[in-house]
cysteine desulfurase
Amino acid sequence: MSHIYLDHAATTPLHESVQEQMTSVMQNHFGNPSSIHFFGRDSRKLLDQARTTIAKSINAPFTSLIFTSGGTEANNLAIFGSAYANEQYGRHIITTQIEHHAVLHPCERLESEGFDVTYLPVDETGQVDLNQLKEALRDDTILVTIMSVNNEVGVIQPIQEIGELLEEHQAVFHTDAVQAYGVQQIDVQEMKVDLLTASSHKIYGPKGVGFLYKHEKHHLKQQVFGGEQERKWRSGTENTLAIAGFEQAVKVLMEERESRNTHYQALFNELIAQLEKQEMEFSINGDLNNRVSNIVNISFPKTEVEMFLTNLDLAGIAVSSGSACTAGSIDPSHVLKAMYGEEDERLYNSIRFSFGIHNTLDEMKQVAEKIQPIVERLKSLS
């Protein structure tokens, strides 16, 4: 049985050129980049080249990038580092109800330590209301953290407008751009963000590496202690191998982003057309006109998501939902709950499809044809 992978928002396979680059680094460059001898300088050169390439991709200075073990660590450093460094100016934080758990859980931890966190709601399209953000801002607000693109429904938030709103405020502005980096052109100067998070394995690079962009005017309280790597912001020997792979993934991304988006949109159009051809009842969650091209979240009425995912997997289709299925029970998506309320049926029947560069239009036809009998069978059981 052939398998079709449509879960690229979870992770992407290594690009072929990334595999080649990492193989070369494994074979020829093993030194510790902090060592002053030839082998160390050789690895330091690779590290500096990667930092230059990746910083350029977001129009940031070379010195503004902090390499981390991934998006989660970068988010934690941004949130805890900002909160602790600025708590003398206030202890109020603003975020949204639809953030990734790598943002929500640090905010919840800070709440337990006495910080005051405002969780902004979203409307049915998944959008934050700028007026509500204005109303939530206080003199003691020290951090605003709002994601660029939601990982479950693909909705884009008005990051530049938020940056402009906060320009004259003391609050540090952080955005989790993990899902945006591979599909949107990111310019931290235009966006007016102070901190920005990205991850390698969402853009066909290796797992275990990411970065935090930090504007030079802002201070963070260090969270990982040891050596003086990453200008003392993040101790620990840099993962030169993974960082070199990350750089190669970014190089390819810069060349192919436009054509990738065109391809993703064609896949989306074909999937929707094929589902309609199968005469299935479905609806798209979130703002259809304000979403990235590679993520679509679809509700199939009168189905049950856990059984749906299992049947799709047995049919060779790899997708996901916003639900965490454990011990036979479903924890509804906090994103869909924020959008539609706690009682809405869409919390329990929605599937996320996320497209990749190797997916084909024919696969979209196959997916629709395999989904149709599964949906009919599940509806008959409801």
Residues 273 and 294 are 16 Å apart (CA to CA). The chain is about 40% helix and 15% strand.
